[in-house]
Write a structure and sequence with these properties.
EC 2.3.1.274, phospholipid metabolism, 5-stranded mixed sheet, alpha/beta, 12 strands, Phospholipid_synth_PlsX-like, 11 helices, lipid metabolism, Isopropylmalate Dehydrogenase, about 325 residues, cytoplasm, 7-stranded mixed sheet
């Protein structure tokens, strides 16, 4: 299996990308990694070169502050765009990037293309839960608006992802809402609810945002507007809590001593509640596997992104989603 990695994407590229790719290539000899980017810059960080790593030179780089659509259309030789072309032209089965999220979504749509029948792909990161199992959330910002039918597709794709990649036999799918009753919500969620009830998924009904961290479901479905607000709220709350704790623990000598005792447990808890620790987020619905790593990814995060991609390819994630969407379309037409 061939995985293209945007070597120039991310806050610490290309160094950590190269390091993570080398570690992954050494771990899995059935994976061929194509590092895409400035060849000289990539080679300057290659302390060793496993046989299953090659470099595809690309002159340009899409920066974090570039306007996504303009950048993808104008920078034809950008590392991210070239990696997308490799997937489109079947020279790679998957691509990974820690670069500009909007540009990666645009690359997915304009370069890789959608699975036939998919109206809109969705960004699906894992959110942390108190029991450590995590919940797959989609969409968290790829599309601000959605139709009931698109939410249904998100639910089906999310269910397949958790089953194939995480090995959950019957993933529980919930619909993000303001209450648990079926009649609750806005017009979008009221219309989506019966569609999900009839879908070939383990639908557990509406889930309030206060229940997301309690692992009330394995997949939480929402439009990108509500999902992104939920994500930013979780991030902001976590940041505020740990900032307040830091202030309290540094006030007096006794509080500093208490902090020293509690530090290992607090550090462990902070990592558990950090969604960036849960690996790369797939753009589900594209006609090729596209994974988004966090911009601040280190070498271990890139290594884990390759691991995720490898599992998804082994389980034929994209093919399974395509077949299920085609089957659902045929059932509706018959």
């Amino acid at each position: 299996m061939r995985i293209a990695i945007d070597a120039m994407g991310g806050d610490h590229a290309p160094k950590v990308v190269v390091e993570g790719a080398i570690a992954a290539a050494k771990e899995w000899n059935d994976v061929h990694i194509i590092l895409v980017g400035n060849q000289a810059a990539i080679e300057s960080h290659m302390t060793e070169k496993p046989a299953n790593i090659t470099i595809r030179h690309a002159e340009e780089v899409i920066e974090a502050d570039d306007e996504p659509v303009k950048a993808v259309r104008r920078k034809k030789d950008a590392s991210m765009v070239v990696a997308g072309k490799l997937v489109r032209e079947k020279e790679a089965e998957a691509m990974i990037s820690a670069g500009n999220t909007g540009a990666l979504m645009t690359t997915g749509l304009l370069v890789v293309g959608r699975i036939p029948g998919i109206e809109r792909p969705a960004l699906a990161p894992m959110l942390p839960t108190m029991d450590g199992s995590g919940v797959l959330a989609l969409d968290l910002g790829a599309n601000m608006d959605a139709t009931p039918e698109q939410l249904l597709q998100y639910a089906i794709m999310g269910s397949i992802y958790r089953a194939k990649v995480h090995g959950i036999a019957k993933p529980r799918v919930g619909l993000l809402n303001v209450g648990t009753e079926a009649a609750k919500g806005n017009e979008l969620t009221k219309a989506a609810y019966p569609l999900m009830e009839q879908a070939p998924i383990e639908f557990v009904g509406n889930i309030e945002s206060s229940q997301v961290l309690k692992a009330s479901c394995d997949v939480i479905v929402c439009d990108g507007f509500a999902g992104n607000i939920m994500l930013k709220t979780l991030e902001g709350a976590a940041s505020a809590i740990f900032s307040a704790l830091k202030q309290e623990f540094t006030k007096t000598l006794f509080s500093k001593l208490a902090a020293a005792i509690l530090k290992p447990g607090l550090t462990k808890f902070r990592k558990k509640m950090d969604y960036t620790e849960h690996g790369a987020a797939p753009f589900l619905g594209l006609d090729g596997l596209v994974l988004k790593s966090h911009g601040s990814s280190d070498a271990n995060a890139i290594y884990n992104a390759v691991r995720q991609a490898r599992i998804a390819l082994q389980k034929d994630l994209v093919g399974t989603i395509s077949a299920e969407i085609s089957r659902g379309k045929r059932d509706m037409e018959s």
